[in-house]
Design a protein that fits this description.
This protein has 470 residues and is mainly alpha-helical. It is 71% helix and 6% strand. α3 packs across α8 and α9 crosses α10.
């Protein structure tokens, strides 16, 4: 009993708080990209129905609309936990930057969420009460609200990566907002936003492909599912291209604002000009000596500076600079984690893009008589873009360490002072079990909706009510 008490008293609230926030954030973000991408795909299919009158698109709209709504509801529930953690586990952080960080979050809640919640409600209940065009407008306005919500949240996160638009009140020892425009036009937010949106299209398209492949493999709902298959494949492809292009801009912003993160992405200890990019490296346990490496010459310079011989600062030089600026300490993130997260992000994205290219070729000209393995590959490839997004955010957040707010507050200084390790452990266990239950519910609801197919989606609507003047 004494041993148990001793172990519990030694629990580190900082470490457990980081684990809890990481767990709840990653879990919540499982739903975010599908919500962002799927609302646009549903809007596109409903637009196709309104313009052509083809009932196939109405069936697809209602079918994938059901998947979108299930996912949206789960994302809403899990997102609420994030807000509470700032007060429970990270009160010192909230006190220090709440005036700045809270501004875009308040705009998200009061403006963006209000728009999306209002118009999603009108879309759900307005099928038989609004004209076709007015009802179509509600789903597009829902999409607008969702992307606005994403932007405001990314603007808040970008302040942690590159703090702007504030001044330090030395009497109160806190950051205070001076320029909301600077916060909303943060170079990191401007580049992170399109990168996040295009990655979301990739995942939503992959889900659409997997669902369509599931039914085409069984020769079910062939006409409608072939159309959704092609739409999903094109979405994955264009989303992948967009993600790569926007990732380049985000990389340049990262080099400008957080050079240590780029150095960690390559495990580059010494500054180099030109700098190569390693596909794979095996080194000594401290990571400072390469024993074996496969490299592409000049590529890191190209990614970092858009020149073939540009200088990329190394970890050791940056560490020395940060010690001189911010005092003694280790300012390097966990190198192996950032190194491999960066490569898995790229690799998984490339895999998703290749699946889309192959799928478009195999299914060209209306072909659906394909080997069974092709349908299985389409179904099992769906996690690739989601995992790419997950490891991408892992790289983004872990590459910022040891800073909670870059250059302003270290992670160790943001945790709530009065919280104990046992407090966090209990909430961590509760959240983990609760999220496990929610995961089972989500999976079963989605699986039931997917298996039902478009047959259960009602086709007939009250056309007389659609003719109401608008």
């Amino acid at each position: 009993m004494h041993l148990v008490s001793h172990v519990l008293s030694d629990l580190d609230p900082l470490l457990l708080s980081r684990w809890q926030f990481g767990l709840t954030t990653i879990y919540h973000f499982l739903f975010v990209p599908l919500t962002i991408g799927m609302v646009f795909l549903v809007a596109i299919m409903q637009t196709a129905w309104v313009r052509t009158g083809n009932e196939k698109f109405l069936k697809l709209t209602k079918f994938f609309g059901k998947i979108f709504l299930i996912n949206f509801a789960m994302g809403l529930v899990t997102g609420i936990v994030q807000e509470f953690q700032f007060g429970m586990n990270w009160s010192d952080y909230s006190r220090f930057v709440g005036d700045v960080f809270g501004a875009p979050l308040a705009m998200e809640g009061l403006l963006a969420f209000f728009i999306e919640a209002t118009f999603i409600g009108l879309w759900i209940f307005g099928w038989d009460k609004l004209s076709k065009r007015v009802h179509l407008a509600t789903i597009w306005l829902s999409a607008l609200g969702i992307v606005l919500s994403a932007y405001f949240i990314l603007a808040a996160n970008s302040f942690m990566q590159n703090p702007v638009g504030f001044e330090i009140n030395t009497l109160k020892n806190r950051a205070e907002l001076t320029d909301i425009g600077a916060v909303l036009t943060n170079i990191v937010a401007i580049n992170q936003f399109p990168h996040t949106i295009t990655a979301s299209f990739m995942f939503a398209g992959a889900v659409m492909v997997a669902v369509s492949a599931y039914h085409l493999k069984r020769s079910q709902f062939v006409d409608s599912m072939y159309s959704s298959l092609r739409l999903g494949l094109w979405t994955v492809l264009f989303g992948g291209i967009g993600t790569a292009l926007t990732g380049d801009g985000l990389g340049l912003a990262m080099v400008k604002t957080q050079p240590m993160k780029m150095a960690a992405a390559e495990a580059l200890y010494n500054s180099a000009a030109p700098a190569s990019f390693s596909i794979f490296t095996w080194g000594t346990p401290d990571g400072k000596t390469d024993l074996f490496s496969i490299r592409i010459p000049n590529l890191l310079s190209l990614l970092s500076t858009h020149t073939l011989d540009g200088k990329v600062e190394g970890l050791n030089d940056l560490q020395a600079q940060y010690v001189a600026l911010y005092g003694p300490g280790d300012y390097m993130p966990t190198i192996w984690l950032t190194y491999w997260a960066f490569r898995w992000m790229i690799g998984l994205g490339v895999i998703a893009g290749l699946v889309a290219v192959v799928g478009l070729w195999l299914s060209r000209n209306g072909r659906i008589t394909l080997p069974k393995w092709t349908w299985n590959a389409a179904i099992w490839a769906v996690p690739a873009p989601l995992l790419a997004i997950a490891v991408g955010w892992t790289f983004t957040e872990m590459g910022r360490q040891p800073w909670l707010v870059f250059k302003l507050m270290k992670t160790a200084d943001g945790v709530s002072p009065g919280i104990t390790g046992l407090d966090v452990l209990i909430s961590l266990i509760v959240f983990t079990l609760l999220y496990g239950v929610l995961a089972v519910i989500e999976f079963r609801l989605l699986l039931k909706a997917v298996k039902t197919g478009t047959e259960d989606a009602p086709v007939k609507t009250h056309e007389d009510q659609f003719e109401v003047a608008y």
